[in-house]
Amino acid sequence: MAYFSGTVQSQVLQMKTGLNVITPVDILKDDRKYPVVYLLHGLSDNCYDWNENTQLTLLANTYGIAFIIPEVQRSFYTDMAYGLKYFTYVADELPQIAQRLFPISGRREDSYVMGLSMGGYGALKCVFLRPDRFAGCGAFSAACSLKACVQMADESQEKELKAAFGINLEHLEENELTTLAMQCISQGFQPDIFMTCGTDDFIYQMSVDFAAFLDKIGMPYEFQKWPGVHEWYLWNKSLHLACAHFFTKQQDDYCNIQ
């Protein structure tokens, strides 16, 4: 595999920002454009944690996919009320940067977004607001309810949420996943959604409630759950399951090419 770690200049953020990329071992072997997963970190993580705690290299080589892992701080993948435009960076600018630097596909059917916790929220947000760009998402232990996040936030976390969604949280409702899912389905899109969560996770009920909401509006999804907490063991397993869910056919094609 090829592992790239460094910074890119973002015009949207108006600064350099960290980026990690994991590719299949033979990515320079031919002229093909590889499927891609934009992989989003959680609230207390950064762009290095996925590579340090999961088997990305194995998955990249097994399925013939590239992983693009951005840095977004504690922004909730949002164009912040008092801060930077991290949603626009991840959903719009980053795919353009990645496609210019690496031989990855820009086709919707080859583009997916996955994430854990805050990143699970970000992945769902990306696929609901840009369903023409991303075919599906993997949301692991996702923060599916911003209102619930506010209720459980301490004083410091409440300040961060106000920086993202407004001093009076006036932008909270428009960024709720329930709102965004309704917008997506009203546009005629039904992206492929794969969710996981540990049944002992402190935010497990968020996933249960959101799955029930998707049932209510008729949006198809798969939700897998098993005993576990908010932990990397579960997220590594979730990543394996999500890659199998999305890329089994691509894996067969990739093996045939090799």
TrEMBL record:
* Entry-linked Pfam families: Esterase
Query: Taxonomically, what lineage is the organism?
Result: Bacteria, Bacillati, Bacillota, Clostridia, Eubacteriales
Q: Which InterPro entries match?
A: AB_hydrolase_fold, Esterase-like, Mycobacterial_A85_antigen
**Cross-referenced Gene3D superfamilies:** alpha/beta hydrolase
- Record protein name field: Acetylesterase
Please, which domain of life does this record's source organism belong to?
A: Bacteria
Gene Ontology molecular-function annotations: acyltransferase activity, transferring groups other than amino-acyl groups
